[in-house]
Amino acid sequence: MIRKIIILMSVLSIISCNKTSKEEGEDSYKDQFLKLAEFNCEGITSDYYVSASIDNLDFCRNTNDSVKSVIQLFNNFTTSGPSTGGTIIGTPYNSIWFGIYVPFEKTDRIKHLYFESDKYSDTATMEEIATDVFVEGKRWPISGKNVIGKTVNCFYRFSDFRPGFNTFHIVSSQYGNQNNNYLEIKKVTIERFENYILYDVDLAFEAELYMSDLRTEADNLWAELRDGKMKALFKVPI
Question: What is the pLDDT of residue 6?
Fold first, then answer.
């Protein structure tokens, strides 16, 4: 009897350690994303930068990497599908996207780590939204399927930059659940000029990043984003 129990326990142990072909496929898919992200952090050597640990791999970009602090106003709709009449269905809204990354016009592999504000009125200006977002001491919840209320979405996107076959990848916090993750506005210095405002900001953040909102939550996690820090200079027109 004891011998049978030992054999049964051994079989169960082997089964529990072996992954199904579906699980192995999901791991392979995640590894492809991580490989394409190409983490290569040589440390922070400039005034403006973004750094983080992504699944225990160090990531950083700074102004010595020819990256810029970028803030943009986007006009969006709550749904993305066109109606039969050719118009977008949904409620319009504005948001700002902000971070440090290589400008789109650069002939370089895209590697962007950035944030999107919550939804504001479609008449809200960049100045109005920035004034609400960049409040020293403010701690914004990171957006997720289980998070209710005003949030900030975290993105990481990158490309493989193959000539003729360049594939664009994106992972986002909003595709899955978050566990008390945040974007904290640690410090803000504001300078006002005739036509614009400069926001010199220090940010801290953590998030879970997911590959797609079409996959189940258990299969969806790309990486844990930890110990995130960003120092950026955002120029906001007025």
Answer: 42
